[in-house]
Amino acid sequence: MAEKWRRVGSIVNPSAGSGVELALQAMRNALSSIGAEEVLTGPGQTGSAALSGWSGRVVVHDVGAASGRDQTRALARWMAGQNIAALVVAGGDGTLADVAQVCIEVGCRTPILGIGAGSTNVGRLVTCRASEASQLHPDKLETWNMDCLTASVNDDLLGRAFNDVVIGYTVVGTIDGQVRDIDAAACLRGKLELGTPRPVATSKTRVTRSSKDGETVVAEGESVGTVVAGFAEPAFFGKAVSGGICLAALAGLPAGCLVCSLPLVQVQMSASALLRAAPMISSYVTLSEDVSIAVEKVRDGAALCVDGNPLRLLNQSDRIVISVRKDAVRGVRFRKNPRSA
Q: In this structure, how many other beta carbons lie within 10 angstroms of the beta carbon of residue 290?
């Protein structure tokens, strides 16, 4: 089986939260572990810097003036047409989602092997964390088809998520090596600035579930502090804080949406602030291919965020719809019962 990994693509996000040196070393470890012999990659810290002295063949693609997420997407788009066995990507959930988005756009079914080198690394596209990259022997791995969440605003599809879709004012990121609450609006401008999580609700905010059986109100008004849609994963079993998502996972349903009166996606709340906070009020609904969530009349300036990437600042006239797409891309994961190497 080892021969299937010989020709691969390699993309590194040099701005990943864990630091560029760790990301580059993890990429080199991964490529060595899977037995790669020919690597297609980007210049410098986007990939080729991990391959200094590499004994195999290295093909470097210059994406010109593109930078940041545009550079990642340009590399992924080029590699998608190069008949490679896998796309090996080192970065955070947002970087992996960007690569997956390109694969869906161009109809590429090349599996994505994700190395988590970001601030959180909790998405389904993450095959392993950076510290585990040396364990990626081909006989321990398998490809699989994974679902995604789609996020649309006013019928315009903005993004696809493999971890979560969040409506809020901040995202989790890294500043000076510390995981912080980052202002989503500043992030859209390409800047990393501290932000303050706060409720997205107005008195007219409304969240509804739509299915073939009709429409149901999930939450409305000031109880809509934040909206978080994510996947029902076995890792949630036994954790009461996950609410109904446990039931969704046990029933084999793909995803769920939690609406809470307080912002949930934050990392800097102090113990004293949490003790002073009003009791949380939350509502949960399960999602499937035939069930979607609509969010309307959120406070101006709240952001639609997909896998940690803010995509758009919202206003009260916007209508956001979150739904499920089955078998969106192929990923790589560890086998439950690996064969002997």
A: 11
The residues, any chain, with a CB within 8 Å of residue 196's CB and separated by 6 or more, are 169, 170, 181, 183
Indicate which CATH number applies to the domain containing 33.
Answer: 3.40.50
In the chain, alpha helices (H): 20-33, 68-79, 93-106, 184-188, 245-250, 271-276
Hey, what's the torsion of the CAs at 252, 98, 179, 175, to 10 degrees? -170
State pLDDT tens for residues 91-137.
988 899 899 999 999 999 999 999 998 777 777 899 999 999 999 99
pTM score of the predicted model = 0.81
Summarize pLDDT for 227-264 with one digit per residue, the tens. Answer: 999 887 655 433 434 556 666 766 778 888 889 998 88
**Sequence-distant (≥ 6) Cβ neighbours of residue 337 within 8 angstroms:** none
Range of the domain at 41: 2-136
Last residue of one domain, picked from the residues 136, 164, 190: 136
Q: Note whether residue 283 is domain-resident.
A: yes
Position 331 in a domain: no
Quick one: which of 175, 211, 182 has its CA closest to 197? Answer: 182
Phi, psi of 309 (to 5 degrees): -100, 115
Residues 225 and 86 in one domain: no
Predicted confidence (pLDDT) per residue in 51-85, tens digit? 999 999 999 999 888 888 899 999 999 999 999 99
In a domain, 333, yes or no: no
The number of domains in the chain is: 2
Tell me: do 317 and 191 sit in the same domain: yes
pLDDT category of residue 12 using cuts at 50, 70 and 90: very high
Instruction: Find tokens 């969440």 and name the residue.
Output: 149
Does residue 81 lie in a domain region? yes
